[in-house]
Design a protein that fits this description.
Layout (H helix, E strand, L loop, with lengths): L2 H13 L11 H6 L5 H7 L10 H8 L3 H14 L3 E5 L2 E5 L3 H11 L1 H6 L2 H12 L15 E3 L3 H4 L11 H7 L3 E4 L2 H8 L12 E4 H9 L3 E3 L2 H13 L3 E5 L9 E5 L5 H8 L10 E5 L9 H4 L6 E5 L45 H5 L6 H9 L3 H8 L6 H7 L3 H5 L11 H8 L25 E5 L3 H13 L2 E6 L7 H4 L8 H14 L2 E4 L9 H6 L2 E6 L5 E2 L12 E3 H10 L8 E5 L3 H12 L4 E6 L10 H9 L3 E4 L1 E9 L2 E14 L5 E14 L2 E4 L3 E2 L33 E3 L2 H4 L4 H19 L40 H4 L12 H8 L6 E5 L9 H5 L5 E5 L8 H32 L1
Parallel strand pairs: 11-12, 11-14, 12-13, 14-25, 16-23, 17-18, 17-23, 18-19
Antiparallel strand pairs: 1-2, 3-7, 4-5, 4-6, 5-8, 7-8, 9-27, 10-26, 15-24, 20-21, 21-22
Helix pairs in contact: 3-5, 4-5, 6-8, 6-11, 8-11, 17-18, 17-21, 17-32, 19-21, 21-32, 22-30, 26-27
């Protein structure tokens, strides 16, 4: 032990009225020990906590020459132990309290903090250990840090006071600077970053700004720049907090915080004691206006908002009694705490929420965009969709509509035509003057200058590219084909998805700045190792499943046997591709239906589709099956190929055997056949569409990426990171063949993981939602309260006309139909707010496009000087809490005796 360091640590704690005993293992000692010399400690011991002193006064107390004292004081200031500011030409020195104060200032010196990571550890440990006693006993408004609401959220509020308006602090400041966030720096140095980065996040004011600028850890800014920083923070969902030590209307720092890194907001979540730093406001939801779009929920830093339900129930759902620190023993009962709050964020209310949003793989705000469309706000609706899906026009044409399958309206009459509404909205994307091109969005307001490679130009890769570019990365998409879009352009026929629709949405990515290199096969034309040498820091492999699968029967190599995906590719590359004679399609999924309908258009005289599954089990959507039948395609269920018949090396027919069951008792694919029940079908072409395969080529050579037996890549299910840390995978290459919307959803999640990976010290998991979506209980809904209203349907093409063209002749809703169909939405979901957890930051109000959430004033707390806090305010609060706890316990005891 170094006696002078222990003496200094003790002095600070005693004078700050926070002393509870200090050992060499405590953060107060450990943070000073590597930085403060004995000489520095001698001078620091001559200063006073929160008392400004001149160098002359300090020199007299430490009995050192004035110039030597000044030199050492400057060393202490640079180290972050002493704060210095200039007033009327005289430097004043002050010994701050530990937090907020010395520990932030020591970590603010980046070079020092990175040299001694123990500083970050001590800052984290002190704020965790020493606040558990403070949290429940600090009255609202009196905490060491205090949330300041977004100003627009309280504009017009008659009870708002100037100390609740962030602009009042900015306007009064005589000097301003911006500095890095020390909480986030500490988290980074500990390898626990949450993806919110530290650079240029905190605004220092007056004496604080003077100190930060002079010691080189802050950059001087104008008031206009300060407002820009605050605005960017709000756009990114970050909470304004002020240092709350100097009395009403005074502060030296405004921070822009996230619960997943901020040590102040942590008190409310870890110890479930939000009074420690909450504002005077809480959020209130107008349930009638709310559409459960989820934007407020996703941006709530303290997880006080959840997606819930609003449909009337047959049986009332009882409200749960919520226990709070106000009348319960708290700091001694660890069961009341939530130390895993950064890992267990759950955004769905326990009673479930809207089935449409729940069952969409991308969790698109269906209710929200339907409501906006109902009001004619189509561009706003498009913007809302693209929060979770950059390709609404594509999905409007080809989505498998799991939202509609789950739609509550089906319990009344028919599901809402969600996809048709989205298709109408997304028509805006096809016109350059009305498409939505988002601006770059990150708290720093500038690009990161980091290069990311996306391999594969299909929906998954393009989705990842979109969200990474949106964050401020330089993204290049490498596509081995000459045309972008992957299976969207090469695997889906134009009569279902016109290629100009795909091109229009890809053009948005070009306008955002995404670069594309087509005709480049990674692994063959350039290796991953070479791309690393070119400066790419991470890779997202989304190569899709573009190969076919073989039947494994005799005759499969005959001329005329082609995989379905190869056939579709050939036709998409050349619509004049012809198919002579009769065609048999083997397979029962949506792709098989596409193959069969394309064969009709390619000139085949007769097309029949044969599949293993029964009519009820057939995986193709019912609508697709009906369209195939209308075009003269025969659907033959319950048959599996036995052999392909050949003549002179060419297909002459195919023999099928009866499939008696497709799945075993565990619903695993395990077809059983009756070998004696067979049929023979004469044909000249066999198009095999029984699944797709993944073709890696040499892309993974020299990497540690491992493959499963089905050739999908092994990766973490939550982050998509493979065994090669800088390589992430998603879409069909990870899951096997699925739908475009699944790949799009994975691309967005992978973008978040990649952002965290390329930024030093960031965890891939901390702060990300962990709870699963679950829908409301439809069995407990009063369906009788709704009238039946017919579903709108778009104009349907004439099948005879449709089967002779590759053009998409399907109609789109008229605006009148959109108005009528949006009225059919039952509005199942709504946001639920826990006002005991809400800290009244107001970020939620800035995210709502429906005027459905506001701040209401509940408290009337304000700053007090730190010197008055413990005796003047915490002690009375502790006594009041004690009385309430005793009264409640007595009441409960009396109730039990009865």
């Amino acid at each position: 032990m170094r006696p002078l360091i222990m003496k200094l640590a003790t002095k600070i704690s005693v004078e700050a009225k926070s002393y509870t005993g200090i050992t060499v293992n405590d953060p107060e000692y450990r943070i000073l020990e590597p930085v403060v010399t004995d000489e520095m400690a001698e001078v620091a011991l001559a200063t006073k906590v929160r008392k400004n002193m001149t160098a002359e006064e300090i020199a007299a107390r430490c009995k050192k020459p004035l110039e030597e004292t000044k030199r050492i004081l400057w060393d202490l200031a640079v180290a972050g132990v002493i704060r210095v500011h200039n007033e009327n030409g005289t430097d004043y020195y002050m010994l701050p309290i530990w937090v907020p104060g010395i520990m932030e200032m020591m970590v603010a010196n980046r070079e020092q903090a990175e040299k001694y990571p123990v500083l970050a550890e001590c800052f984290e440990e002190y704020t965790r250990r020493r606040t558990k006693l403070l949290g429940p006993n600090v009255p609202v408004g009196k905490g060491l840090m205090r949330v300041i609401p977004v100003e627009e959220a309280i504009n017009g509020e008659s009870h708002a006071a100037s100390y609740e308006e962030v602009s009042s602090y900015i306007e009064k400041a005589w000097r301003l600077c911006v500095s890095d966030c020390t909480c986030r720096r500490s988290r980074r140095l500990m390898g626990e970053g949450c993806g919110h980065l530290e650079t240029d996040m905190c605004i220092q004011l007056d004496e604080g700004a003077d100190y930060f600028i002079r010691t080189g850890v802050g950059r001087e800014i104008t008031k206009e720049e300060a407002y820009e920083i605050l605005k960017r923070a709000e756009e990114n969902g970050l909470v304004h907090e002020i240092q709350n030590l100097d009395g009403e209307g005074k502060t030296v720092a405004i921070c822009n915080c996230c619960t997943c890194s901020c040590f102040s907001l942590r008190v409310g979540k870890y110890y479930m004691s939000p009074d420690f730093n909450r504002s005077n406001y809480v959020s209130k939801v107008d349930v009638e206006k709310c559409v459960a779009c989820g934007q407020c929920v996703e941006n709530c830093q303290v997880n006080a908002l959840h997606l819930g339900r609003k449909l009337c129930t047959k049986t009332p759902i009882p409200e749960k009694e919520v226990e709070t620190p106000h009348d319960h023993v708290w700091m001694l009962d660890k069961k009341r705490w939530n130390p895993e709050f950064r890992y267990n964020r759950d955004e769905i209310d326990e009673n479930g929420t809207a089935p449409c949003k729940t069952n969409c793989p991308a969790h698109i705000a269906v209710q929200g965009y339907i409501k906006l469309a109902a009001k004619g706000q189509y561009l706003d609706a498009l913007e809302l969709i693209k929060k979770n899906n950059p390709f609404p026009a594509v999905c409007g044409h080809i989505c498998n509509r799991r939202c509609e399958d789950a739609c509550s309206r089906a319990d009344v009459d028919e599901p809402v035509a969600i996809d048709e509404i989205k298709k109408f909205i997304a028509e805006q994307e096809l016109k350059a003057e009305t498409r939505f091109v988002p601006k770059m969005q990150n708290p720093q307001g500038k690009k990161y200058g980091k290069k990311i490679a996306v391999v594969g130009g299909g929906p998954g890769g393009l989705s990842c590219a979109y969200y990474l570019q949106l964050r401020g990365y330089d993204v290049t998409v490498f596509e081995k084909n000459d045309r972008l879009g992957g299976m969207l352009t090469l695997g889906i026929p134009a009569f279902r998805l016109e290629k100009d629709v795909v091109d229009a949405e890809i053009e948005v990515l070009r306008e955002m700045g995404v670069e594309f290199q087509t005709g480049v096969e990674v692994g063959k034309d350039v290796t991953i190792r070479e791309l690393r040498q070119q400066g790419f820091e991470a890779f997202y492999l989304a190569v899709g499943a573009q190969g076919g699968r073989r039947l494994g029967v005799d005759g499969e190599n005959a001329q005329g046997v082609v995989s379905g995906v190869e056939f579709l590719r050939n036709v998409n590359l050349d619509e004049n591709t012809k198919l002579e004679g009769r065609t048999v399609v083997v397979g029962g999924g949506n792709v098989a239906i596409d193959v069969a309908r394309t064969a009709v258009r390619a000139g085949s005289s007769e097309v029949g589709l044969y599949c293993l599954e029964s009519a009820k089990e057939m995986p193709a959507q019912a609508e697709e099956q009906e369209e195939a039948k209308e075009e003269g395609i025969s659907l033959n269920c319950g048959w599996g190929p036995k052999q392909i018949l050949t003549e002179n090396g060419k297909v002459a027919g195919i023999e099928f055997k009866r499939c008696t069951s497709v799945f075993d008792e565990n619903h695993r694919f395990h077809p059983q056949y009756d070998e004696n029940d067979t049929i023979t079908v004469e044909c000249e072409n066999v198009l095999v569409s029984i699944g797709q395969s993944i073709q890696w080529g040499t892309m993974l050579d020299g990497t540690r990426v491992r493959l499963n037996r089905n050739q999908t890549a092994m990766a973490d299910a939550g982050t998509y990171q493979t065994g090669e840390p800088d390589i992430f995978v998603g879409g069909d290459a990870y899951t096997g063949p699925k739908f475009a919307i699944d790949a799009i959803a994975a691309g967005k999640e992978a973008a978040e993981s990649i952002h965290r990976f390329v930024q030093p010290g960031q965890s891939l998991l901390i702060g990300r939602p962990a709870g699963a979506y679950h829908e409301l209980d439809k069995e407990n809904v009063d369906w009788d309260s709704f009238d039946q209203t017919p579903r709108q349907r778009p104009a349907k093409p004439n099948p005879e006309e449709a089967k002779h063209t590759m053009r998409d002749l399907r109609g789109t809703f008229t605006e009148e139909q959109v108005k009528k169909e949006t009225e059919r939405c039952l509005g199942c979901g709504a946001t639920v707010v826990d006002q005991n957890v809400c800290v009244g930051c107001g970020i939620c109000t800035t995210k709502c496009k429906f005027d459905a959430i506001h701040l209401e004033r509940r408290y009337d707390g304000h700053e007090v000087p730190y010197e008055q806090l413990i005796v003047g305010h915490m002690a009375p609060t502790l006594m009041k809490r004690g009385a309430k706890i005793v009264a409640r316990q007595a009441k409960e005891l009396a109730g039990r005796k009865k």
